[in-house]
Amino acid sequence: MRFRRGNPALLTATLNHKQGLMTSRKLRQAFQAALDMEPIMDAAAGHYLLYRLDPGLWPPEQVFQHSKAGAVLYNEKDKAKARRLLKEAGYTGQPVRWLTTNEAPHHYKSALVAKQQLEDVGFKIDLQVLNFATLQQNLSRPELFDVISTWHGFSVSSPALSNWVDCLSPYSGWWCLEEKERLLAELARETDTRKRKGIIDRVQTLFYEDVGQIRFGDLFQLSVVRKELRGEFRSEPFTFFWNAWLEKK
After folding, report:
1. Dihedral sign, Cα of residue 200, residue 205, residue 207, residue 208
2. What are the residues facing 224 on neighbouring strands?
3. φ, ψ for residue 151 (rounded to 5)?
4. Which of 88, 129, 132, 133 could join 103 via S-S bond, C-beta 3.0 to 4.6 A?
5. 240, β-bridge pairs
6. CA 79 – CA 77 distance, rounded (Å)
């Protein structure tokens, strides 16, 4: 058999910007500052070859969209800063409702490790484990959660259309910011590659400064094919076997 690593998905925890505890910017910043992404991603993927730590909202494989902007706020693992921000936010131990599912092990295991790290700095995490269908249904009900486990697949569309930065999408946690909305509208119109990259850098900087959501890292799927399979087949981002054949022994 032959093994190949597919295109990455963004493993995230979506914060609820519409209502509840995570409408506090300082509380979101404390959440972000507390996390050490290496053990979180290791638990989610199970092997170092199946994950990558990277700040980009769009992966390195998308060369003209990938950015390192805001990287200083990614994977901070700064417990002292997190505790200070919790105090400044006036947090008094209210339970943070985090919805996840053990039907998707990468969701559940990443949430478990993050829960421990967050509680180490003073958060109280109410981790609610649901079946996957219920988790998806509850994603559009902001009254039910403060944080929800999500991931975003490899996207071939324009960054301006990505649901994890869309103000109206539950996949962004309804993250709405006036400057970000203006930049996304500008990005949708801009055709110059260099200018587009500058806009993407600014959107990503805002993402980390305002804590749009929590980006754990890139998660890879492992594809396995028989050694007899030949040709230019692909399994990511869409599966097809055009011009592929089984070699006869």
Report:
1. positive
2. 3
3. -150, 160
4. 132
5. 234
6. 6
